[in-house]
């Protein structure tokens, strides 16, 4: 089983990112699960969402305490939230930042750290600073847990009622995937 934990702030599409991972994995013929963890948080407050992918039915329902993949949509969380809690030397981390990975302060091996300026891509392609789909393009490329085609299909499914937004997000996913 592959376990993914996503950190971000309320309003950044963290929950949607987890849902898109699960939909894409399902589109690839795998079993998947996605769920959020938040209470009465408001826009801008730190939140988490989780996704699991497996070839067998998933029975676990608890939070993900030891992720295989860690996605950080807002790099400011690195200094305010223990985002690397439960990670090990095999955990892959994908961070939205304009910094080089050598500048990142996180207790994980540098070879497992992947950085992408998802904010820049989101502003260029979508016109808004919502980075969830962008960072999922990097997730698909780095991990191979979902295919690019299934991720694009998931975006189309999620945004079926907003075709223009779906097209912009697909362009952003492809751009991130190809970087």
Can you describe this structure?
The protein is of the alpha/beta class and 179 residues long. The protein has one domain (2-178): Pyruvate-ferredoxin oxidoreductase, PFOR, domain III (Pyruvate-ferredoxin Oxidoreductase, domain 3, 3-Layer(aba) Sandwich). It is built from 5 helices and 6 strands. Strand 2 and strand 3 form a beta hairpin. Helix 2 runs antiparallel to helix 5 (163-178). The model has no long low-confidence stretch (mean pLDDT 94). InterPro entries: Oxidoreductase_gamma_subunit, PorC_KorC, Pyrv/ketoisovalerate_OxRed_cat, Pyrv_flavodox_OxRed_cen. One of its GO terms (molecular function) is oxidoreductase activity, acting on the aldehyde or oxo group of donors, iron-sulfur protein as acceptor. Residues 10-177 form the Pyruvate/ketoisovalerate oxidoreductase catalytic domain. It comes from Candidatus Falkowbacteria bacterium RIFOXYA2_FULL_47_19.
Arithmetic mean of pLDDT: 94
Task: Please tally the helical runs, counting DSSP H or I stretches of 4 or more residues.
Answer: 5
- The name of the CATH superfamily reads Pyruvate-ferredoxin oxidoreductase, PFOR, domain III
- Provide the CATH topology: Pyruvate-ferredoxin Oxidoreductase, domain 3
Strand order of the biggest β-sheet: 2-3-1-4-5-6
By DSSP, the count of extended strands is 6
Order of helices and strands: EHEEEEEHHHH
Poorly predicted residue ranges: none
What global shape is seen?
Answer: globular
Largest sheet: 6 strands, mixed
Number of structural domains: 1
Q: Structural class of the secondary structure composition?
A: alpha/beta
CA-based gyration radius = 15 Å
CATH class: Alpha Beta
Distance between the termini: 27 Å
Measured as a percent range, the helix fraction is 25-40%
- Percentage of β-strand residues: 15-25%
User: What is the correct CATH architecture?
Assistant: 3-Layer(aba) Sandwich
């Amino acid at each position: 089983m592959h376990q993914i934990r996503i950190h971000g702030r309320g309003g950044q599409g963290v929950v949607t990112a987890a849902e898109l991972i699960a939909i894409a994995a399902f589109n690839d013929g795998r079993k998947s699960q996605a769920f959020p963890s938040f209470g009465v948080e408001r826009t801008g407050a730190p939140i988490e969402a989780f996704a699991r992918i497996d070839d067998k039915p998933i029975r676990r329902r608890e939070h993900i305490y030891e992720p295989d993949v860690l996605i950080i949509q807002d790099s400011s969380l690195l200094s305010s939230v223990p985002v690397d809690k439960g990670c090990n030397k095999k955990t892959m981390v994908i961070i939205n930042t304009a910094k080089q990975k050598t500048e990142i302060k996180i207790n994980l091996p540098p070879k497992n750290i992947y950085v992408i300026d998802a904010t820049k891509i989101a502003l260029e392609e979508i016109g808004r600073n919502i980075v969830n789909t962008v960072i999922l393009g990097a997730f698909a490329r780095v991990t191979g847990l979902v295919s690019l085609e299934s991720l694009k299909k998931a975006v189309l499914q999620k945004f079926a009622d907003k075709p223009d937004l779906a097209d912009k997000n697909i362009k952003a996913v492809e751009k991130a995937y190809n970087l």
